[in-house]
Amino acid sequence: MKRVKVTKENDTGRNTNFIDNYTKENMTIKEFINKIENNENNYQDKYHIRNINGIKTPCSNPDGSINNNLD
Questions:
Q1: Domain assignment of residue 23, yes or no
Q2: pTM (predicted TM-score)
Q3: Alpha-carbon torsion 56, 58, 59, 61, what sign?
Q4: What gap in Å lies between CA 42 and CA 48, rounded to an integer?
Q5: Does residue 67 fall inside a structural domain?
Q6: Is residue 69 part of a domain?
């Protein structure tokens, strides 16, 4: 089971809401970004933040595994 799954996208396809399948916590993109930046729940082990078109965007760390990809 993937650690974090996307639960909602906006009209442009940007991921906006997520669920942590381990803790069952629902998060907005802002909450997820804050948790990654603060390394809550060891998210930095699997995810990082990219600046895409001037917007902070959570992304999976490249590691050859599809089990932690955001989709």
A1: yes
A2: 0.88
A3: positive
A4: 11
A5: no
A6: no
